[in-house]
Specification:
single chain
Length: about 160
């Protein structure tokens, strides 16, 4: 099972697709990707899409996740992290473009001059849309209710 926390930690139930809303810590997408890669082994690959590299990075730095600082760049965790791709499409149009261009070499798109960021070696086992509200709200105001809350993760396990 996968988790939003370093192990040992609470596990999520099995899911083919999942929407997590409400407050969660900013390193949750990374822990989710690492625990999935750990569970599925070398064939696993996680893709995290966030609207802003700066906001994503700053939120993780503000959190000061001790486990990430102590363990993410060492041994097995570093190997698991190599199977995580982070992309930062800044607008809904860019997000749509990236999602529409994702493909695996060997498919019918192989001869179309694939870009290395969108042509993945293997199909993603997990796609995480981190904070999708940022694509549709000019500024995320916690008092403003929206269809997809500002602190939402949309996860699809394939």
């Amino acid at each position: 099972m996968v988790s939003l926390f370093p192990q040992p930690g609470p596990l999520l139930p099995g899911f083919p697709t999942l929407l997590i809303t409400g407050p969660y810590h900013s390193s949750a997408p990374i822990h989710l990707a690492l625990t999935l890669n750990s569970e599925l082994g070398p064939q696993a690959h996680a893709l995290i899409l966030a609207p802003s590299r700066t906001l994503f990075k700053d939120a993780i730095l503000r959190l000061n996740d001790h486990w990430l600082y102590a363990n993410s760049g060492t041994g097995r965790n570093a190997a698991l992290a190599t199977s995580v791709t982070l992309l930062y499409p800044p607008t809904p149009v860019h997000l749509s473009l990236v999602l529409s261009m994702l493909c695996v070499p060997g498919t019918e798109n192989q001869s179309a001059g694939l870009h290395p960021k969108t042509a993945q070696a293997v199909a993603p086992s997990l796609v995480v849309l981190a904070e999708p509200s940022r694509y549709f709200l000019p500024s995320v105001d916690p008092s403003m209710s929206s269809y997809v809350p500002p602190t939402a993760l949309h996860l699809t396990l394939t």
